[in-house]
Amino acid sequence: MEIPEIVGAGLIVIGAGLGIGRIGGSAMEAIARQPEATNKIQTAMLIAAALIEGIGFAALFAK
Amino acid sequence: MQIKKLPFLLAAFMFVAPFLSFASDSIAEPAHINGQSEEVAKDEKKAKINAYIKHHLKDTHDFHLFSNERTGKHYGFPLPVILWDDGLHFFMSSAFDHGHKLAESKGNYYKLHHGKIYRTEADGELTYDHSEAKHSEHGGETSVKSHIEEVSGGHAEENKDHGHPTNIVPLDFSITKNVFNIFFIGLLVFLIFSSVARGYKKGLAPKKAAKFFEPLVLFVRDEIAIPNIGEKHYRKYMGFLLTAFFFIWMVNLFGLTPLGVNVTNNIAVTGALALMTFFITQFTSKKDYWLHIFWMPGVPYPMRILLAPIELLGVFIKPFALMIRLYANITAGHIVLMSLISLMFIFDNIGAKGAFYGLTIFLSIIELLVAFLQAYIFTMLSALYFGMAVEEHDAH
After folding, report:
1. Which of B30, B67, B125, B163 is the most buried (most CB within 10 A)?
2. pLDDT of amino acid B38
Protein backbone atom coordinates (compact mmCIF):
# COMPACT_ATOMS: atom_id res chain seq x y z
CA MET A 1 0.00 0.00 0.00
CA GLU A 2 1.26 3.40 -0.86
CA ILE A 3 1.51 5.90 1.95
CA PRO A 4 0.38 9.34 0.83
CA GLU A 5 2.81 12.23 0.99
CA ILE A 6 0.57 14.09 3.37
CA VAL A 7 1.31 11.52 6.11
CA GLY A 8 5.01 12.28 5.83
CA ALA A 9 4.25 15.99 6.02
CA GLY A 10 2.24 15.36 9.18
CA LEU A 11 5.07 13.35 10.74
CA ILE A 12 7.53 16.15 9.98
CA VAL A 13 5.25 18.70 11.59
CA ILE A 14 4.84 16.51 14.69
CA GLY A 15 8.59 16.07 14.99
CA ALA A 16 9.41 19.72 14.49
CA GLY A 17 6.62 20.73 16.87
CA LEU A 18 7.91 18.41 19.60
CA GLY A 19 11.44 19.72 19.13
CA ILE A 20 10.56 23.38 19.20
CA GLY A 21 8.16 22.80 22.09
CA ARG A 22 10.94 21.22 24.12
CA ILE A 23 13.31 24.09 23.37
CA GLY A 24 10.65 26.64 24.33
CA GLY A 25 9.75 24.79 27.52
CA SER A 26 13.35 24.43 28.61
CA ALA A 27 14.00 28.09 27.88
CA MET A 28 11.00 29.05 30.03
CA GLU A 29 12.34 27.00 32.92
CA ALA A 30 15.80 28.46 32.50
CA ILE A 31 14.43 32.01 32.44
CA ALA A 32 12.37 31.31 35.57
CA ARG A 33 15.50 30.12 37.35
CA GLN A 34 17.74 32.91 36.10
CA PRO A 35 15.74 35.92 34.98
CA GLU A 36 18.92 38.00 34.61
CA ALA A 37 20.10 35.71 31.79
CA THR A 38 16.88 36.16 29.78
CA ASN A 39 18.54 37.80 26.79
CA LYS A 40 21.18 35.14 26.33
CA ILE A 41 18.68 32.31 26.77
CA GLN A 42 16.26 33.85 24.32
CA THR A 43 18.94 34.23 21.67
CA ALA A 44 20.10 30.66 22.04
CA MET A 45 16.49 29.46 22.01
CA LEU A 46 15.69 31.31 18.79
CA ILE A 47 18.77 29.98 17.02
CA ALA A 48 18.01 26.39 18.02
CA ALA A 49 14.35 26.78 17.05
CA ALA A 50 15.33 28.29 13.70
CA LEU A 51 17.62 25.37 12.94
CA ILE A 52 14.90 22.81 13.62
CA GLU A 53 12.41 24.84 11.67
CA GLY A 54 14.80 25.04 8.74
CA ILE A 55 15.08 21.25 8.60
CA GLY A 56 11.33 20.90 8.98
CA PHE A 57 10.68 23.25 6.07
CA ALA A 58 13.36 21.67 3.93
CA ALA A 59 11.70 18.27 4.43
CA LEU A 60 8.22 19.62 3.80
CA PHE A 61 9.19 21.36 0.58
CA ALA A 62 11.44 18.58 -0.68
CA LYS A 63 8.56 16.10 -1.12
CA MET B 1 -5.28 65.39 17.39
CA GLN B 2 -4.89 64.93 13.67
CA ILE B 3 -1.68 63.04 14.07
CA LYS B 4 -3.12 60.74 16.72
CA LYS B 5 -5.74 59.53 14.31
CA LEU B 6 -3.16 58.23 11.86
CA PRO B 7 -1.99 55.21 13.90
CA PHE B 8 -5.61 54.30 14.51
CA LEU B 9 -6.43 54.48 10.81
CA LEU B 10 -3.35 52.42 9.99
CA ALA B 11 -4.34 49.81 12.54
CA ALA B 12 -7.86 49.68 11.16
CA PHE B 13 -6.46 49.32 7.66
CA MET B 14 -4.27 46.45 8.78
CA PHE B 15 -7.33 44.64 10.09
CA VAL B 16 -9.21 44.87 6.83
CA ALA B 17 -6.24 44.68 4.50
CA PRO B 18 -6.05 40.90 4.03
CA PHE B 19 -9.64 40.78 2.87
CA LEU B 20 -9.50 43.58 0.35
CA SER B 21 -7.58 41.64 -2.22
CA PHE B 22 -9.45 38.45 -1.60
CA ALA B 23 -13.07 39.41 -1.16
CA SER B 24 -13.17 41.23 -4.44
CA ASP B 25 -11.64 38.36 -6.31
CA SER B 26 -13.35 35.59 -8.13
CA ILE B 27 -13.78 33.30 -5.13
CA ALA B 28 -16.28 35.48 -3.37
CA GLU B 29 -19.04 34.41 -5.68
CA PRO B 30 -19.13 30.92 -7.09
CA ALA B 31 -19.65 31.00 -10.80
CA HIS B 32 -23.10 29.55 -11.17
CA ILE B 33 -23.61 27.71 -14.37
CA ASN B 34 -27.00 26.31 -15.20
CA GLY B 35 -27.44 22.58 -14.93
CA GLN B 36 -24.39 22.14 -12.75
CA SER B 37 -24.77 20.08 -9.61
CA GLU B 38 -23.75 21.46 -6.24
CA GLU B 39 -20.96 18.90 -5.94
CA VAL B 40 -19.24 20.12 -9.08
CA ALA B 41 -19.66 23.72 -7.99
CA LYS B 42 -17.98 22.88 -4.69
CA ASP B 43 -15.09 21.10 -6.39
CA GLU B 44 -14.68 24.02 -8.70
CA LYS B 45 -14.61 26.41 -5.77
CA LYS B 46 -11.87 24.36 -4.14
CA ALA B 47 -9.81 24.22 -7.31
CA LYS B 48 -10.30 27.93 -7.77
CA ILE B 49 -9.04 28.64 -4.26
CA ASN B 50 -6.05 26.42 -4.93
CA ALA B 51 -5.30 28.32 -8.10
CA TYR B 52 -5.75 31.61 -6.31
CA ILE B 53 -3.26 30.75 -3.58
CA LYS B 54 -0.74 29.50 -6.11
CA HIS B 55 -1.17 32.63 -8.17
CA HIS B 56 -0.72 34.78 -5.09
CA LEU B 57 2.67 33.20 -4.42
CA LYS B 58 3.90 33.77 -7.96
CA ASP B 59 5.81 36.65 -9.44
CA THR B 60 3.84 38.41 -12.17
CA HIS B 61 4.36 41.00 -14.88
CA ASP B 62 1.74 43.38 -13.52
CA PHE B 63 0.12 44.53 -10.30
CA HIS B 64 -3.22 42.79 -10.14
CA LEU B 65 -5.55 44.27 -7.56
CA PHE B 66 -8.90 42.64 -8.26
CA SER B 67 -11.09 41.30 -11.04
CA ASN B 68 -14.70 41.61 -11.88
CA GLU B 69 -15.87 38.12 -12.63
CA ARG B 70 -19.02 39.05 -14.48
CA THR B 71 -17.37 41.34 -16.98
CA GLY B 72 -14.06 39.48 -16.86
CA LYS B 73 -12.20 42.73 -16.37
CA HIS B 74 -9.02 42.96 -14.33
CA TYR B 75 -7.99 45.99 -12.38
CA GLY B 76 -4.41 46.88 -11.56
CA PHE B 77 -1.52 48.55 -13.27
CA PRO B 78 1.00 47.25 -15.80
CA LEU B 79 4.78 47.06 -15.47
CA PRO B 80 7.40 47.33 -18.18
CA VAL B 81 8.49 44.18 -20.00
CA ILE B 82 12.10 44.04 -21.16
CA LEU B 83 13.09 41.13 -23.38
CA TRP B 84 16.35 40.19 -25.06
CA ASP B 85 15.60 38.21 -28.18
CA ASP B 86 18.05 39.15 -30.96
CA GLY B 87 17.75 42.74 -29.89
CA LEU B 88 16.08 44.62 -27.14
CA HIS B 89 12.29 44.59 -26.87
CA PHE B 90 10.56 46.99 -24.58
CA PHE B 91 6.83 47.36 -24.03
CA MET B 92 4.32 47.59 -21.19
CA SER B 93 2.71 44.40 -19.90
CA SER B 94 -0.71 45.86 -20.68
CA ALA B 95 -0.02 44.75 -24.26
CA PHE B 96 -0.67 41.16 -23.09
CA ASP B 97 -4.07 42.06 -21.66
CA HIS B 98 -3.58 39.42 -18.91
CA GLY B 99 -2.63 36.70 -21.34
CA HIS B 100 -5.57 37.20 -23.69
CA LYS B 101 -3.67 39.05 -26.39
CA LEU B 102 -0.40 38.74 -28.27
CA ALA B 103 2.15 41.46 -27.81
CA GLU B 104 3.93 42.56 -30.96
CA SER B 105 7.37 44.12 -30.83
CA LYS B 106 9.72 44.69 -33.79
CA GLY B 107 8.08 41.98 -35.85
CA ASN B 108 8.11 39.32 -33.13
CA TYR B 109 5.03 38.08 -31.33
CA TYR B 110 5.01 37.22 -27.64
CA LYS B 111 2.45 35.38 -25.58
CA LEU B 112 2.05 35.37 -21.82
CA HIS B 113 1.35 31.83 -20.65
CA HIS B 114 1.12 31.08 -16.90
CA GLY B 115 3.30 34.05 -16.04
CA LYS B 116 6.00 33.15 -18.56
CA ILE B 117 6.64 34.85 -21.87
CA TYR B 118 6.99 32.75 -25.03
CA ARG B 119 7.74 33.75 -28.61
CA THR B 120 5.04 32.64 -31.01
CA GLU B 121 4.06 33.03 -34.63
CA ALA B 122 1.50 35.63 -35.63
CA ASP B 123 -1.36 33.18 -34.88
CA GLY B 124 -0.30 32.92 -31.22
CA GLU B 125 -0.39 29.10 -31.05
CA LEU B 126 1.78 27.37 -28.47
CA THR B 127 3.15 23.88 -29.13
CA TYR B 128 3.31 21.43 -26.25
CA ASP B 129 5.69 18.56 -25.61
CA HIS B 130 2.87 16.22 -24.53
CA SER B 131 0.81 14.33 -27.05
CA GLU B 132 -2.83 15.07 -27.62
CA ALA B 133 -3.78 11.52 -26.59
CA LYS B 134 -3.09 12.30 -22.97
CA HIS B 135 -5.24 15.33 -23.31
CA SER B 136 -8.37 13.42 -24.19
CA GLU B 137 -7.82 10.85 -21.44
CA HIS B 138 -8.65 13.43 -18.83
CA GLY B 139 -11.35 14.97 -20.93
CA GLY B 140 -13.82 15.64 -18.14
CA GLU B 141 -11.23 16.94 -15.79
CA THR B 142 -9.65 19.35 -18.18
CA SER B 143 -12.93 20.89 -19.15
CA VAL B 144 -13.53 21.91 -15.54
CA LYS B 145 -9.94 23.07 -15.22
CA SER B 146 -9.97 25.08 -18.39
CA HIS B 147 -13.15 26.70 -17.26
CA ILE B 148 -11.47 27.66 -14.00
CA GLU B 149 -8.54 29.06 -15.91
CA GLU B 150 -10.96 31.08 -17.93
CA VAL B 151 -12.58 32.70 -14.92
CA SER B 152 -9.38 33.30 -13.02
CA GLY B 153 -7.95 35.05 -16.03
CA GLY B 154 -5.64 32.40 -17.40
CA HIS B 155 -3.48 32.66 -14.31
CA ALA B 156 -4.37 29.25 -12.90
CA GLU B 157 -1.67 26.77 -12.05
CA GLU B 158 0.41 25.06 -14.67
CA ASN B 159 -1.89 22.45 -16.06
CA LYS B 160 0.02 19.20 -16.03
CA ASP B 161 -2.06 17.60 -18.73
CA HIS B 162 -0.97 20.23 -21.21
CA GLY B 163 2.74 19.58 -20.78
CA HIS B 164 5.20 22.39 -21.25
CA PRO B 165 5.27 24.69 -24.24
CA THR B 166 8.22 24.11 -26.53
CA ASN B 167 8.21 27.66 -27.88
CA ILE B 168 11.31 29.82 -27.62
CA VAL B 169 11.60 31.59 -24.28
CA PRO B 170 13.32 34.97 -24.70
CA LEU B 171 15.65 36.26 -21.98
CA ASP B 172 13.35 38.06 -19.60
CA PHE B 173 14.75 41.14 -17.85
CA SER B 174 11.33 42.56 -17.10
CA ILE B 175 10.58 44.79 -14.17
CA THR B 176 8.20 42.29 -12.59
CA LYS B 177 6.26 42.82 -9.39
CA ASN B 178 9.12 41.50 -7.26
CA VAL B 179 11.79 43.51 -9.06
CA PHE B 180 9.67 46.62 -8.75
CA ASN B 181 9.25 46.03 -5.05
CA ILE B 182 12.96 45.41 -4.50
CA PHE B 183 13.74 48.74 -6.21
CA PHE B 184 11.04 50.44 -4.18
CA ILE B 185 12.20 49.06 -0.82
CA GLY B 186 15.82 49.78 -1.69
CA LEU B 187 14.96 53.39 -2.43
CA LEU B 188 12.82 53.66 0.69
CA VAL B 189 15.55 52.29 2.95
CA PHE B 190 18.10 54.58 1.30
CA LEU B 191 15.93 57.68 1.74
CA ILE B 192 15.01 56.87 5.33
CA PHE B 193 18.55 56.21 6.45
CA SER B 194 20.19 59.06 4.59
CA SER B 195 17.73 61.46 6.24
CA VAL B 196 18.34 59.79 9.62
CA ALA B 197 22.10 60.09 9.12
CA ARG B 198 21.80 63.76 8.15
CA GLY B 199 19.93 64.41 11.41
CA TYR B 200 22.96 63.37 13.44
CA LYS B 201 25.07 66.14 11.92
CA LYS B 202 23.15 68.70 13.92
CA GLY B 203 23.57 66.95 17.24
CA LEU B 204 23.61 63.53 18.79
CA ALA B 205 20.02 63.54 20.02
CA PRO B 206 17.88 61.51 17.58
CA LYS B 207 15.37 63.51 15.58
CA LYS B 208 12.11 62.54 13.83
CA ALA B 209 12.48 59.12 12.18
CA ALA B 210 15.74 58.56 14.00
CA LYS B 211 13.77 58.21 17.24
CA PHE B 212 12.27 55.05 15.80
CA PHE B 213 15.30 53.68 13.98
CA GLU B 214 18.04 54.39 16.51
CA PRO B 215 16.91 51.67 18.95
CA LEU B 216 16.68 49.20 16.07
CA VAL B 217 20.17 50.02 14.81
CA LEU B 218 21.49 49.73 18.36
CA PHE B 219 19.64 46.44 18.69
CA VAL B 220 21.42 45.07 15.63
CA ARG B 221 24.75 46.32 16.95
CA ASP B 222 24.47 45.35 20.62
CA GLU B 223 22.37 42.19 20.44
CA ILE B 224 23.42 40.73 17.10
CA ALA B 225 26.83 41.98 15.94
CA ILE B 226 28.91 42.43 19.10
CA PRO B 227 27.98 39.18 20.93
CA ASN B 228 28.50 37.05 17.80
CA ILE B 229 31.42 38.73 16.05
CA GLY B 230 33.23 40.36 18.94
CA GLU B 231 34.23 43.91 19.83
CA LYS B 232 37.33 43.81 17.65
CA HIS B 233 35.92 43.01 14.22
CA TYR B 234 32.21 43.84 14.32
CA ARG B 235 32.46 47.27 12.69
CA LYS B 236 33.23 46.15 9.16
CA TYR B 237 30.21 43.84 9.11
CA MET B 238 27.70 46.38 10.40
CA GLY B 239 26.97 47.68 6.89
CA PHE B 240 25.84 44.35 5.57
CA LEU B 241 24.03 43.29 8.75
CA LEU B 242 22.01 46.51 8.96
CA THR B 243 21.18 46.48 5.26
CA ALA B 244 20.10 42.84 5.34
CA PHE B 245 18.07 43.34 8.49
CA PHE B 246 16.12 46.37 7.31
CA PHE B 247 15.72 45.12 3.75
CA ILE B 248 14.30 41.75 4.81
CA TRP B 249 12.11 43.27 7.46
CA MET B 250 10.57 45.88 5.18
CA VAL B 251 10.13 43.47 2.31
CA ASN B 252 8.36 41.04 4.64
CA LEU B 253 6.09 43.78 5.91
CA PHE B 254 5.22 44.81 2.37
CA GLY B 255 4.35 41.21 1.61
CA LEU B 256 1.48 41.52 4.09
CA THR B 257 -0.20 44.37 2.24
CA PRO B 258 -3.03 43.66 -0.23
CA LEU B 259 -0.71 44.32 -3.16
CA GLY B 260 0.60 40.83 -2.57
CA VAL B 261 4.26 41.47 -3.30
CA ASN B 262 6.07 38.51 -1.79
CA VAL B 263 9.69 39.16 -2.52
CA THR B 264 11.12 36.89 0.16
CA ASN B 265 9.03 33.93 -0.94
CA ASN B 266 10.98 33.91 -4.16
CA ILE B 267 13.84 31.49 -3.62
CA ALA B 268 16.11 33.44 -5.98
CA VAL B 269 15.93 36.52 -3.75
CA THR B 270 16.71 34.66 -0.54
CA GLY B 271 19.37 32.75 -2.45
CA ALA B 272 21.06 35.99 -3.47
CA LEU B 273 20.98 37.24 0.11
CA ALA B 274 22.44 33.97 1.39
CA LEU B 275 25.12 34.09 -1.32
CA MET B 276 26.21 37.50 -0.08
CA THR B 277 26.59 36.09 3.43
CA PHE B 278 28.55 33.18 1.94
CA PHE B 279 30.98 35.37 0.00
CA ILE B 280 31.51 37.82 2.85
CA THR B 281 32.24 34.90 5.19
CA GLN B 282 34.78 33.37 2.81
CA PHE B 283 36.56 36.58 1.80
CA THR B 284 36.94 38.00 5.30
CA SER B 285 37.92 34.73 6.93
CA LYS B 286 41.14 34.39 8.88
CA LYS B 287 43.67 31.57 8.97
CA ASP B 288 42.02 29.94 11.98
CA TYR B 289 38.74 29.51 10.09
CA TRP B 290 40.34 27.36 7.40
CA LEU B 291 42.43 25.54 9.99
CA HIS B 292 39.23 24.53 11.76
CA ILE B 293 37.80 23.24 8.51
CA PHE B 294 40.72 21.24 7.14
CA TRP B 295 42.77 20.37 10.23
CA MET B 296 40.60 20.63 13.32
CA PRO B 297 42.83 21.27 16.33
CA GLY B 298 42.25 19.41 19.57
CA VAL B 299 40.92 16.13 18.15
CA PRO B 300 42.80 12.87 17.40
CA TYR B 301 44.51 12.69 13.99
CA PRO B 302 42.27 10.05 12.34
CA MET B 303 39.26 12.14 13.33
CA ARG B 304 40.73 15.21 11.64
CA ILE B 305 40.71 13.41 8.28
CA LEU B 306 37.10 12.36 8.84
CA LEU B 307 36.01 15.81 9.94
CA ALA B 308 37.54 17.73 7.04
CA PRO B 309 34.98 16.75 4.35
CA ILE B 310 32.09 17.22 6.78
CA GLU B 311 33.29 20.68 7.74
CA LEU B 312 33.86 21.57 4.12
CA LEU B 313 30.31 20.52 3.29
CA GLY B 314 29.13 22.61 6.22
CA VAL B 315 30.57 25.71 4.55
CA PHE B 316 28.00 25.31 1.77
CA ILE B 317 25.14 23.95 3.87
CA LYS B 318 25.11 27.01 6.13
CA PRO B 319 24.12 29.57 3.47
CA PHE B 320 21.84 26.98 1.86
CA ALA B 321 19.93 26.59 5.14
CA LEU B 322 19.80 30.38 5.40
CA MET B 323 18.17 30.54 1.97
CA ILE B 324 15.64 27.77 2.64
CA ARG B 325 14.69 29.08 6.07
CA LEU B 326 13.71 32.56 4.98
CA TYR B 327 12.00 31.37 1.79
CA ALA B 328 10.04 28.58 3.45
CA ASN B 329 8.97 30.60 6.47
CA ILE B 330 7.47 33.38 4.42
CA THR B 331 5.92 31.03 1.86
CA ALA B 332 4.37 28.84 4.54
CA GLY B 333 3.06 31.88 6.38
CA HIS B 334 1.38 33.17 3.25
CA ILE B 335 -0.11 29.79 2.36
CA VAL B 336 -1.60 29.40 5.85
CA LEU B 337 -2.97 32.93 5.83
CA MET B 338 -4.52 32.56 2.38
CA SER B 339 -5.99 29.17 3.28
CA LEU B 340 -7.63 30.59 6.40
CA ILE B 341 -9.16 33.41 4.39
CA SER B 342 -10.36 30.86 1.82
CA LEU B 343 -12.03 28.82 4.55
CA MET B 344 -14.35 31.75 5.16
CA PHE B 345 -15.70 31.27 1.65
CA ILE B 346 -15.99 27.52 1.91
CA PHE B 347 -18.19 27.48 5.00
CA ASP B 348 -21.76 28.65 4.68
CA ASN B 349 -22.28 28.96 8.42
CA ILE B 350 -22.04 32.56 9.63
CA GLY B 351 -20.52 31.44 12.96
CA ALA B 352 -17.70 29.59 11.20
CA LYS B 353 -17.11 32.59 8.96
CA GLY B 354 -16.77 34.81 12.03
CA ALA B 355 -14.42 32.37 13.73
CA PHE B 356 -12.13 32.26 10.70
CA TYR B 357 -12.24 36.04 10.45
CA GLY B 358 -10.91 36.24 14.02
CA LEU B 359 -8.33 33.57 13.32
CA THR B 360 -7.14 35.41 10.21
CA ILE B 361 -6.62 38.62 12.17
CA PHE B 362 -4.77 36.69 14.86
CA LEU B 363 -2.55 35.04 12.26
CA SER B 364 -1.92 38.34 10.49
CA ILE B 365 -0.55 39.71 13.75
CA ILE B 366 1.60 36.59 14.15
CA GLU B 367 2.85 37.19 10.61
CA LEU B 368 3.89 40.72 11.60
CA LEU B 369 5.98 39.11 14.33
CA VAL B 370 7.37 36.51 11.92
CA ALA B 371 8.35 39.27 9.48
CA PHE B 372 10.54 40.76 12.19
CA LEU B 373 11.73 37.43 13.57
CA GLN B 374 12.92 36.15 10.20
CA ALA B 375 14.87 39.35 9.55
CA TYR B 376 16.38 38.98 13.02
CA ILE B 377 17.27 35.32 12.55
CA PHE B 378 18.80 35.88 9.12
CA THR B 379 20.96 38.71 10.46
CA MET B 380 21.78 36.78 13.61
CA LEU B 381 22.93 33.65 11.79
CA SER B 382 24.91 35.75 9.28
CA ALA B 383 26.65 37.43 12.22
CA LEU B 384 27.32 34.00 13.73
CA TYR B 385 29.01 32.84 10.52
CA PHE B 386 31.03 36.07 10.28
CA GLY B 387 32.04 35.52 13.88
CA MET B 388 33.33 32.04 13.00
CA ALA B 389 35.30 33.50 10.10
CA VAL B 390 37.19 36.07 12.14
CA GLU B 391 37.56 34.11 15.36
CA GLU B 392 41.11 33.83 16.64
CA HIS B 393 42.06 30.97 18.88
CA ASP B 394 44.92 31.62 21.20
CA ALA B 395 44.05 28.65 23.38
CA HIS B 396 45.25 25.93 21.00
Report:
1. B67
2. 67
Q: DSSP letters along B118-187, please?
A: EEE-TT-PPPBSS-HHHHHHTHHHHHHHHHHHHHTTT-SPPPGGG--B-S---EE----HHHHHHHHHHH
Q: Give the pLDDT of residue B336.
A: 84
CB contact under 8 A, A57 and B223: no
DSSP B211-226: HHHHHHHHHIIIIIIH
ipTM over 0.95: no
C-beta atoms of B325 and A50 within 8 A: yes
Out of B154, B172, B190, a domain closes at B172
The residue that leads in pLDDT, B302 or A54, is B302
Do B162 and B212 sit in the same domain of this protein?
A: no
* φ and ψ at residue B192, rounded to 5 degrees: -60, -50
Domain, as residue range, for B351: 177-390
- Give pTM, 2 decimals: 0.77
Could you tell me whether strands B88-92 and B103-105 are parallel, antiparallel, or unpaired per DSSP bridges? Answer: unpaired
Least CB–CB distance from B325: residue in A43, A53, A60: A53
Interface of B with A in 308-327 (CB under 8 A): 321, 324-325
Domain boundaries, chain A: 39-63
Least confident of B26-30, B74-78, B215-219, B240-244: B26-30
Beta carbons of B381 and A61 less than 8 Å apart: no
* Chain A residues 28-47 within an 8 A CB cutoff of chain B: 39, 43, 46-47
Helix, strand, coil percent content, chain B, rounded in steps of 5: 60, 10, 30
Q: Which of A53, A55, A60, A63 to mutate to test the interface with B (most CBs of B within 10 A)?
A: A53
For chain A, say whether B381 makes contact (Cβ under 8 Å): yes
pLDDT at position A28 is 94
Asked whether the beta carbons of residue A47 and residue B324 sit closer than 8 angstroms, the reply is no
Single-letter amino acid, residue B291? L
The answer to whether the Cβ–Cβ distance between B381 and A47 falls below 8 Å is yes
